[in-house]
Structure formats: structure tokens, C-alpha cells
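Example 5.3 — Regulator of protease activity HflC, stomatin/prohibitin superfamily
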Amino acid sequence: MYQEKIINPPSGYLTFALSIALLGASIFCFVSEIFLWGGVLLAIDVFLIFPGFLIINPNQSMVLTLFGKYLGTVKADGFFWVNPLTAKRRISLKANNLNGQQLKVNDKLGNPIEIAAVVVWKVNETAKAVFSVENYMQYVNIQSEAAVRHLANIFPYDHAEGEETSITLKDGAEKVSELLENELNERLSRAGIEVLEARISHLAYAPEIASAMLQRQQATAVIAARKLIVEGAVGMVEMALEKLSQKGIVELDEERKAAMVSNLLVVLCGDRHVQPVVNTGTLYN
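Solution (predicted C-alpha cells):
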């Protein structure tokens, strides 16, 4: 595997001045009807001087090869001159956004879900990006999709009933993003790619089970609310009986306590307004 080698070629301004001088000399020869020397000087300028000029913009690099051998990478921005026989390939060092397409996969529990991710990446080692893979941009797309699929398969979408999972795709966004970023860096290191950030951009149940899962979530919420209401109602009844007993307001036998508890629980736990009933008799008649 190729390792990146940074090179700093000489400035191109001196060579550019030489090129202008050769061009002027060739023109002078043609004007003086010295066509042989004019042709030689022009050929040297066109075929040996001009092809060697190199302009590198900020956040760009140029990978140089000579007859199939890797010479190095120029990362410094500026105007340079290199061997005119070298092959040049420009590689951008800017950050790129990959907005992954929505994938339909199964989570850890086998539920079909839709998931997509946004990946921010850049080329870190140009030699690996050029020589280790065929097309590093296509490589990033395919490996990112594979990493998202793998991530969706090892975590459930949400907590399953009766099971407490430490990490889920829905609630563990920060941890899931960290794991996705680490896996992508491991996969893309072969191509000299560094992942700066990776986050889940879309997460939902597949349409065929979305309605069923919505009903399940609603039922879970209702049960949790009812449980809280019952716990609160029991505490209030207990407190009421304790206060009545401490202050001696009324002496209640077991049957009256049971009736009072029943009435209070109906009032506190019911989801509708209760209608008061005035009892003018006793519980024993």
C-alpha cells in the first residue's frame, strides 16, 4: 500500500521567464528567416517547458507519477514547475458531504425500518485515494451504505416490551453517531479518507408496520399514564384514611373503609367526570 510522500517542486516563475525568453528568441529567428533555430526553440518551449507548469489552488493537491512510478504529492498552493513528462492528477482536499439515500433494512429485532445518514469526509492521504482503490468517491458511497446497514442490524429501533436495551437507534443518537463515525473511519482508511462527522438523518419504521407500531407506542403511553395515576390515587387514599384516623373525625369500620376506598379510586382514576350521589341512608340498610 502506497504511503503519501509530500514534495515541494521549484517555483515556476523563473522557468516562466525562461519560457518567455525562448518564445521571444524563436519569434526573432522566424523574423530573421532562421527557420531551423526558430523551430527548435519553439519546440523546446512548447513541448519541454510549458507542460511542466503547475498551478495548485488552496485546499487542492496534485499527485505526480513518472512512467508509472509515484513521485509524490504537491499540497502547497502556488505556481510550480515539474518534470514535463510527469502525469498529474488533481485531488481536492476540501470537505465533502454525502447525503445517503434512504435504506430499507431490518433492525436487531427484525422490524423493517427506513434509515439514512449524512457523512462529512475529506481526502487525507492522496496516494491511497489514487492507488489503493479504483474510484475513491464511489468507494465512499458504497462503504457508507454498508456501514449504515450494519449499524441498523446491531441495534433495535426502540426498546422492546419487557427488555431494557442500553442503546437504541431512536434514543441513542449521540452514541450511534459516534459508532457510525468510528466504523466509517475504519472502513475508509484503506482509501485515505477521513470521516469528520457522521449522523443519522432519517429514521422511521417502514410503511407496512408504521401504523401498528404507532398503536403500540400509544398503548404503551396509555399504560404508563394509567400506572402513574393509580399509584398517585392509592397514595392519596392512604393519606386521606390516615388523616381521618389521626384527627378522629370519624370512626370507620372495615366495610366503610372499603366503600370509601372504592369511591375515591373511582373519582381519582376515572377518565370522566363523576356524578355525585347523595346517600341519605346507611350502608347497612
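Remark. The chain has a mean pLDDT of 84.
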